[in-house]
Amino acid sequence: MQENNVIQVKELTKKFGDFTAVNAITFDVKKGEIFGFLGANGAGKTTAMKMLIGISNPTSGEANVADFNVFTNAEDVKKNIGYMSQKFALYDDLTVKENITFFGGIYGLSRKRIKEKSNALIKELGLEKIANHLVGSLPLGWKQKIAFSVALLHEPKIVFLDEPTGGVDPITRRQFWEMIYKASHEGTTIFVTTHYMDEAEYCDRVSIMVNGKIEALDTPKRLKEQFNSKSMNDVFLKLARG
């Protein structure tokens, strides 16, 4: 893996029978970069992410994540990344504090470290009054912010975020992106999928998938220039239409 590249992918492919969900994609992601992975439903972005986080075996190609090969060292990949899914990130029937403690244990932190991290996280997010409330009783925006912080508990090299702001209000989305910027500034690489095209503008670089292939990859500014478009939404529409 080249120095400063924490994700390196070459000709990565995933087939389900005769159907090719991810078709020979190639790209790399640099340390501390906010990398946007965009595509319509069915474009292959979630399948690609599952291969990169070590929960789906690639059919062919090469991929290294956090200095580990996803084919041969999937468990090491999992230990060195954080992952946040829109659909499942926290346990609703546990309190905020219990969720932090549980995931700290899953990530292999010591009891002392979990206590330190838990206290710091609760203070940073201003959760003192609701630390003992069930997560299921909290608004979605709070759940997502807590889930992101929990994904950073073990100080991973990379955090994968799958549609992290889906369904939350614009103010919460902005606050969430402030958290992403802070983590990136501190050296954590952010790999994020989103269907909000305006959020693509916040990324350092953006990859756009269409029908299992990466059809464009560059900074938002360069992509808009390349496709003579005023917004990333226009770029996406032009690519989707072929």
Give a summary of the structure in a few sentences:
The protein is of the alpha/beta class. It contains 9 helices and 10 strands.
Structural overview:
With 242 residues, the protein is of the alpha/beta class. It folds into 2 domains: 1-80 and 158-169 and 188-242, P-loop containing nucleotide triphosphate hydrolases (Rossmann fold, 3-Layer(aba) Sandwich); 83-155, no CATH class. 36% of the residues lie in helices and 27% in strands. The chain is built from 9 helices and 10 strands. The chain has helices spanning 45-52, 74-79, 96-106, 111-124, 140-151, 170-185, 197-200, 220-226, 232-240; strands spanning 5-16, 19-30, 34-39, 60-65, 68-69, 81-85, 158-162, 189-193, 205-210, 213-218. The strands form 2 sheets. Strands 6-7-8-3-9-10 form a 6-stranded mixed beta sheet, with helices on both faces. Strand 1 and strand 2 form a beta hairpin. The longest helix is centred in the last third of the chain and has 16 residues, at 170-185. The protein is globular. The two termini are 33 Å apart.
Task: Kindly list the characteristics that best describe this protein.
242 residues, alpha/beta, Rossmann fold, 4-stranded antiparallel beta sheet
Identify low-pLDDT runs. Answer: none
Total number of strands: 10
The H-level CATH homologous superfamily of the largest domain, spelled out, is P-loop containing nucleotide triphosphate hydrolases
Q: Would you identify the CATH architecture of the largest domain?
A: 3-Layer(aba) Sandwich
Number of helices: 9
Largest sheet: 6 strands, mixed
Residue-averaged pLDDT, rounded?
A: 91
Query: Termini separation (Å)?
Result: 33 Å
What overall geometry do the principal axes of the alpha carbons give?
globular
Structural class assignment:
alpha/beta
| Largest beta sheet: strand ordering | 6-7-8-3-9-10
User: Approximately how much beta-strand content do the residues carry?
Assistant: 25-35%
According to CATH, what is the topology of the largest domain? Rossmann fold
Could you tell me the radius of gyration in angstroms?
A: 18 Å
Helix content: 25-40%
The succession of helices and strands, N to C, reads EEEHEEHEHHHEHEHEEHH
Q: Please give the CATH class of the largest domain.
A: Alpha Beta
Give the domain tally.
2
InterPro entries: AAA+_ATPase, ABC_transporter-like_ATP-bd, P-loop_NTPase
Keywords: ATP-binding, Membrane, Nucleotide-binding, Transmembrane, Transmembrane helix, Transport
Membrane topology: Multi-pass membrane protein
GO molecular function, one term: ATP hydrolysis activity
